[in-house]
Amino acid sequence: MPLGLHGATLVLADEDFDNAPESGNGLNGGNANVSLTTTAGDPTDSGRGNVGSADISPGSRWGEVRAQTEDITIPVESVPGSDTFTVSLDVYIPSDTTYDETDRLGIILRWNASNTNNNQVFRFWDSFAPDTWETISLTGTLPENGGDGAPLSSVVPIISFDDNPSDAAEGVAAYIDNLRLEVSTADDDPNLAAPTALTFGEIIEGDDDVTAILQVRNSGTNNTLTISSGNLSGADSSSFSFPDDTFPLDILPGASEEVSVTFSPADGPRSYAATLEIASNDQNDPAFE
Prior knowledge:
The protein contains no helices and 19 strands. By secondary structure, the protein is mainly β.
């Protein structure tokens, strides 16, 4: 199997607001003039179960709700500057909302806990149909660096409320549900794919050397995979070998090649093991073991 999780969707946050906000369960009321509660059932009668209720306390323009109490670590499988993110939130604006048409609701992605160079999407209150669940979403490319200038390491999704001017009455501004943040990793191209283990089975003492075939495949779609070298390591590496002319080896997109590995026991019967490291132009996994 290939190394890594490239070509996968990694879910970083998936909050359905079914649990009441309390210490340790991930929900957080945020700051300023918005507090988060969950209702006993869905007041919108949509069969969703509990949903988040964003309640307003007048006096401050900006308020927020966070579905995570701490920043979320960016997965090591992702590639900032290349892989994409998608964040989405279901929103229900009741007809008796305490906000008005000049106010806004949005999602902010704060990278590396910095409040600069965020990704965000906002909608004005009058763009939502009353008493109807709608989804707002944002898709983009993971930045290479956070707002602090350091390499990307974390993110916190924030549901932001903008009361402009600060004139909202106390009460429910909106119901929210299903905050989801995911990262889609791109397929490597070229991509080195090979089994993670090669076994020779049981060998009777005195038998000749045994050769096994390692199938190496390029699962990319456009670019040739070039394997520049192979290196055997480990305590028993001297008992394994491959022909001197094996590498370099070029493999076309979608094609496979065979690599012969020969086992020659150095001494008596026992278990033998070694590691074969293959170096290639697979940018995300340049060394396969």
